[in-house]
């Protein structure tokens, strides 16, 4: 074995490179691990997805179902739906893996959101990492697209309703809406082509793009090295952390196993998306209340809260869904994509930064971040206003009015509060963390005391 | 010692007791003595809070001052409301004065003042404003401002608590879930205020610098006060939270028990009447005379206030002269009628009348109504597959594919079908209660109704909960919460364990 390794190294000469790579230092602050969590979720998604792919039939051809759910026997359904019900109820480990897959998708995007928040509030996106912020944003968009296409594959009543909304929102785009909808759906909804195209996007295009973007994301991190918080011995020129091998690798592998275990636990003990109860999608059926998965909830909420504007411009009608369903998300993502550049312009700070801010170091950024987060949270909550209306016995109309107000008020309140708190914390830190060290002397009585003159300002 | 406060407290007790005597004189039912006990307890708490030994201590120490304030806002104020002042006032003054008070209670300013969102916000603003403005310091040095501050605290606390203490007339009645949310929302607010005081590195009120002697002692005293608000305030609010939850449970149970007891008494009377009639008049006349008369009694007691003695209806309830047997049975057996409050959607629950009483009532109403006497016949042998298709096509748009129900607009709810019996489901399909459309036999045949009922029954009794805990079958909302809180929550915990702080 040793000879084999030595022989290989003799010919390839990779030992020095490998040695350097394995000794690379990784800061191991706990909040730096959320991105890895997303990565491990992605691996679980690929592994479980491959199994599901063996049993899925991406066809809208009529099928008859003769499986163990007797109530569905005479129901006309598509082959796609029938195959997912069979996969769920009559395939060994099918339901377990489908549930793990679905839970992994929900946690995947949640981990991305958390990771993004961490990067944002610590200013990790600043020069030289603007590029990787853009790659990360793209990963978020791709993950949401992968989630939505996957959610729509079973051709069940709930996801079909979501697909119909997506179709209508596409149609609302001025001038090109009809072409866009045709491009994605291949005709007037519901179409026979949709499921096949969704499958191709879900199992090929999107995973390939995600894998590619992840590779770029990690390569850039590798090249630029990780950021770190301020601390003893940490400067803009060095990286303090655990060496990749064995310390950090062990931690990371442990984290990966914990992620896999959590997802498996969720899949084993919690039912998710019981499509056999929802039934196959038929354009004239509907179930209410209906919600999308959580990461689409804010788009649903935007549609629910959006104004009912309908504007005629030069013989083209711009219908209401365009404003809430296209413009708002475009502005939202546009703001996020451009944030590093906007901040650089506003602060005139073009310097490279390897040391992270604490949220309180940049009150304006923290305030704006809190406001944007509050905005997204209100939209997400509004996406399930009918469920809340049912539980709280409040009319849906009142909920909508309330959420519209909240959408305006809460971001302002959250932003200003976060800004004030950050300012306060920053001011306080400058008092409680003096630059000079304090000298401790032993008194004659045997106690310890600070030497008054060594305290900055001489105040006690 | 100052005698103003004891004199005031004694005077208010005297007035209160006088009103109670008047109330007892005017009303058939005496004033509940528990209210009197609450009033006495409030006076005792006020005395303890505002008299020695606490009062002198609170002059020099933020901690004791905080204890005093907590007594005022979290103990005395709720006790004041529990003493039912408005109900007492309304019951003890003469009719013209009662009218005047009632006008005040329904006036716009009063309704604005007592609106729960306003009351909650006002209390919060007072609490934060008083501590982080010159008011507090001013109150420490100026006795008049101090009295004003205490009155403001006490008054805003009464405003805060009136939203959830429902004794006497209430301008904005809240149901129990909302009341729970109301108290729950106050908990972080109070905790943060306590925490803000606790964490401050400055002595906020210079007055205490003088009384405590040194900066360090004043700061320690202030921290103790903040901690008291944070912890004791939180505990007191939590206790109220639990009390509201308990009151909810008690309310639901008592409702059932009280109605059962009423009905048992009625049943015995009915039985006696029947036996009497059987022996004296013979069976034939008995059926004609006694059963409808029991039904008439029941109708007079439970229904006539809204539907009229002659079924003619009123502003509060519809005319029943053409009502069908199915409708009467549906509303009575699902516990929707007799309603406690007219005008709002009645929610299904335990039947409020016993089966015998319902039979008698249905018999009476149908003897006066020209409506259809038809009954639904369902036997739970319908076709499951057809039932499923019909359910999805006709019912799921409001009740959801899983039958869990939901909001359908303008405050109406499509109820959860979990507790409906097969007969009730079939009756609802035919009569269309509330905003639900009625499906006549041309739309859904009897056989089709039988099919639908079968599928609903399967959803209820044999929900195919494959795959584990069904999370209430309400779909992605619950799933998203589990993914964030349980899934990502656990994983973040792992990150915290294996990652470092630096």
Describe the structure.
The complex is a heterodimer of chains A (460) and B (502). With 460 residues, chain A is mainly alpha-helical. Chain A has 2 domains: 279 residues, Up-down Bundle (Cytochrome Bc1 Complex, Chain C); 103 residues, no CATH class. Chain A is built from 16 helices and 8 strands. In chain A, a hairpin with a 5-residue loop joins β7 and β8. The longest helix of chain A has 37 residues. By secondary structure, chain B is mainly alpha-helical. Chain B folds into 3 domains: 249 residues, no CATH class; 88 residues, Cytochrome c-like domain (Cytochrome Bc1 Complex, Chain D, domain 2, Orthogonal Bundle), CATH 1.10.760.10; 80 residues, Cytochrome Bc1 Complex, Chain D, domain 2 (Orthogonal Bundle). Helix content of chain B is 69%, strand content 1%. Chain B has 22 helices and 2 strands. Chain B has a two-stranded antiparallel sheet. In chain B, a hairpin with a 2-residue loop joins β1 and β2. The radius of gyration of chain B is 30 Å and the shape is flat. Chain B starts with a helix and ends with a helix. Chains A and B meet through α5, α10, α11, α15 and α16 of A and α11, α18, α19, β1 and β2 of B.
């Amino acid at each position: 074995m040793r000879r084999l390794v030595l022989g290989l190294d003799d010919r390839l000469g990779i030992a020095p490179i490998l040695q350097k790579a394995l000794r690379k230092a990784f800061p191991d602050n706990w909040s730096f691990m959320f991105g890895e969590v997303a990565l491990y979720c992605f691996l679980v998604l690929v592994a479980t997805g491959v199994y599901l792919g063996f049993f899925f039939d991406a066809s809208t051809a009529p099928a008859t179902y003769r499986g163990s759910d007797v109530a569905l026997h005479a129901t006309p359904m598509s082959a796609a739906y029938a195959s997912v019900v069979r996969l769920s109820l009559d395939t060994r480990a099918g339901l377990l893996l489908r549930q793990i897959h679905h839970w992994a998708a929900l946690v995947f995007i949640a981990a991305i959101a958390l990771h993004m928040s961490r990067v944002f509030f610590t200013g990790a996106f600043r020069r030289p990492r603007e590029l990787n912020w853009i790659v990360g944003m793209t990963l978020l968009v791709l993950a949401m697209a992968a989630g939505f296409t996957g959610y729509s594959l079973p051709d069940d009543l709930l996801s079909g309703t979501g697909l119909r909304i997506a179709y209508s929102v596409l149609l609302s785009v001025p001038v090109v809406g009809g072409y866009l909808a045709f491009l994605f759906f291949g005709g007037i909804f519901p179409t026979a082509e949709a499921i096949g195209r969704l499958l191709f996007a879900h199992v090929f295009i999107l995973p390939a793009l995600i894998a590619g973007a992840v590779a770029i994301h990690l390569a850039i991190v590798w090249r630029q090295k990780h950021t770190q918080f301020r601390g003893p011995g940490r400067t803009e020129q060095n990286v303090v952390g655990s060496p990749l091998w064995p310390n950090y690798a062990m931690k990371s592998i442990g984290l990966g196993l914990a992620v896999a275990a959590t997802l498996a636990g969720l899949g084993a003990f919690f039912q998710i998306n019981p499509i056999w109860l929802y039934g196959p999608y038929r354009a004239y059926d509907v179930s209410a209340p209906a919600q999308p998965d959580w990461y689409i909830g804010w788009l649903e909420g935007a549609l629910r809260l959006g104004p009912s504007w309908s504007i005629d411009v030069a013989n083209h009608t711009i219908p209401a869904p365009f404003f809430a369903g296209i413009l708002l998300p475009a502005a939202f993502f546009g703001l996020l994509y451009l944030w590093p550049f906007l901040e650089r312009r506003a602060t005139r700070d073009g310097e490279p930064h390897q040391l992270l801010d604490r949220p309180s170091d940049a009150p304006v950024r923290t305030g704006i971040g809190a406001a944007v987060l509050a905005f997204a949270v209100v939209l997400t909550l509004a996406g399930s206003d009918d469920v809340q209306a049912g539980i709280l016995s409040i009319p849906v109309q009142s909920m909508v009015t309330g959420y519209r107000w909240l959408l305006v008020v809460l971001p302002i309140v959250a932003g200003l509060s976060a800004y004030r708190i950050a300012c306060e914390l920053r001011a306080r830190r400058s008092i409680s963390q003096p630059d000079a060290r304090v000298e401790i002397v032993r008194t004659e009585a045997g106690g310890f005391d600070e030497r008054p003159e060594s305290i900055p300002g001489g105040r006690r | 010692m100052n005698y103003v406060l004891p004199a005031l407290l004694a005077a208010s007790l005297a007035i209160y007791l006088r009103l109670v005597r008047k109330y007892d004189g005017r009303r058939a039912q005496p004033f509940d003595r528990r209210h009197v006990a609450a009033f006495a307890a409030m006076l005792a708490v006020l005395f303890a809070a505002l008299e020695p030994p606490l009062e002198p201590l609170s002059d020099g120490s933020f901690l004791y001052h905080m204890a005093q304030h907590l007594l005022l806002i979290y103990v005395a104020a709720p006790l004041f409301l529990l003493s039912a002042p408005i109900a007492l006032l309304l019951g003890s003054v003469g009719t013209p004065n009662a009218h005047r008070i009632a006008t005040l209670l329904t006036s716009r300013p009063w309704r604005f003042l007592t609106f729960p969102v306003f009351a909650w916000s006002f209390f919060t603003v007072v609490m934060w404003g008083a501590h982080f403005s010159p008011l507090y310091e001013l109150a420490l040095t100026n006795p008049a401002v101090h009295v004003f501050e205490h009155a403001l605290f006490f008054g805003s606390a009464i405003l805060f608590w009136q939203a959830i203490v429902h004794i006497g007339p209430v301008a904005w009645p809240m149901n129990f879930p909302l009341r729970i949310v109301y108290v729950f929302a106050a908990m972080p607010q109070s905790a943060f205020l306590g925490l803000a005081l606790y964490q401050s590195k400055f002595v906020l009120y210079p007055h205490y610098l003088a009384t405590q002697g040194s900066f360090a002692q004043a700061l320690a005293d202030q921290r103790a006060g903040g901690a008291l608000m944070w912890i004791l305030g939180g505990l007191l609010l939590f206790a109220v939270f639990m009390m509201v939850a308990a009151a909810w449970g008690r309310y639901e149970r008592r409702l059932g028990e009280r109605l059962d007891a009423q009905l048992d008494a009625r049943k015995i009377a009915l039985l006696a009447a029947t036996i009497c009639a059987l022996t004296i008049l013979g069976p034939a006349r008995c059926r004609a005379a006694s059963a409808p008369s029991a039904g008439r009694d029941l109708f007079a007691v439970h229904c006539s206030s809204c539907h009229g003695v002659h079924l003619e209806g009123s502003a509060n309830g519809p005319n029943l002269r053409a009502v069908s047997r199915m409708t009467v049975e549906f509303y009575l057996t699902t516990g929707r009628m007799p309603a406690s409050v007219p005008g709002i959607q009645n929610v299904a629950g335990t039947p409020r009348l016993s089966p015998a009483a319902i039979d008698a009532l249905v018999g009476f109403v149908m003897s006066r109504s020209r409506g259809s006497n038809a009954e639904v016949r369902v036997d739970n042998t319908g076709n499951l597959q057809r039932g499923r298709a019909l359910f999805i096509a006709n019912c799921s748009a409001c009740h959801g594919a899983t039958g869990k129900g939901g909001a359908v607009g303008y405050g109406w709810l499509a109820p959860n079908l979990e507790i409906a019996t097969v007969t009730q489901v079939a009756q609802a399909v035919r009569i269309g209660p509330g905003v639900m459309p009625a499906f006549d036999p041309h739309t859904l045949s009897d056989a089709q109704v039988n099919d639908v009922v079968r599928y609903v029954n399967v959803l209820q009794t044999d929900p195919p909960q494959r795959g584990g805990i069904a999370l209430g079958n309400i779909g992605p909302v619950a799933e998203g919460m589990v993914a964030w809180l349980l899934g990502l929550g656990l994983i973040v915990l792992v990150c915290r364990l294996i990652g470092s702080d630096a």
